[in-house]
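User: Can you help me understand a structure? I only have the sequence.
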Amino acid sequence: MIDGRLDDLYIDAPDDGRPQPGAIYRAKMLRPIKGLHGATVDLGDGQTGFLREARGLAPGDSFLVQINSHSEDGKAPPVTRRLLFKSRHVIVTPDAPGINIARRIRDDDRRDTLLELVHDVLGDAGLPDGAGVILRSVCDAAPEDQIAEDLADTAALAANVLADAEGDAPELLVAAPEAELRAWQDWVDPAPDSVERDDAPFERLGIWDALAALQSPRADLPGQGWMAVEPTSALVAVDVNSGGDFSPAATLKANLAAAAELPRQLRLRGLGGQVVVDFAPLGKKDRKQVEQALRRALKSDPVETSLIGWTPMGHLELQRKRERQPLSELWPR
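Assistant: Let's start by predicting it. Here is the structure, written out as tokens:
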């Protein structure tokens, strides 16, 4: 919750047997998919995944993969061989060498201290050559002993998993993080004012009401404007309305508010894939201003999103990673 408003949401979904994003498997190559340079892979227990880049692999090969995003019903989840071992302070990258420090950490002395800390810890970690580390922005103010402990634990986990890549059978090696762990890892910047673990805050802060409001396609905007966010089987359709005031100033105000609000609405609703936005009547001269508002909002959004551009009919298209399961699927369960 930020300034009394729900800003992000993680839910532990009932187990439906589908592989979850972040989970790491020892997989086995099944068959290539001609024309896509990809392949289906066996994840064990009757589960399969889709590997987009499979050059150099042959049927029967064993290797490690990580679930990249949620799968749609009836489709295999996308997987990647570029593993990320993520914790609160660090990300260990087995396939990306080097030590990278978050840009927000600008003090040169602090950066030098963190570099020295990483070298000291990694010397005993047992990671293979070519592995790297990313120090997250929370390291700027975190105690060094906490960073070192977190890095040592994460590096040890990565080393153990990498050593298990050549096993015989496909197998789940690292489960996807549960909601509370994801929150502890991700919601660190800015640092929370408080963390509460009982039901009372949900009533007191109006969280249940905010969740209930997300069951409706309608999202109100400042002033009279509103937008409808409706997922279909092919895409997410967003319709922006000025609320009855059709003056150029009112429609531009509604469109700018919608652009600023859209990432939060998609995030809370767990929506991804192709997103098509039909703004209120918008002249071409105002498109750049709306685009800039949307890009600013996307900068603080944790879900990878690409702004594709305008269609001949004046709609704006986005491509958003399916990182989360739609709230419309989770809520009834």
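Now, to help you interpret it: The two ends are 23 Å apart (CA to CA). The helical segments are 108-122, 144-163, 179-186, 200-204, 207-213, 248-269, 287-299, 327-330. Let me know which part you'd like to focus on.
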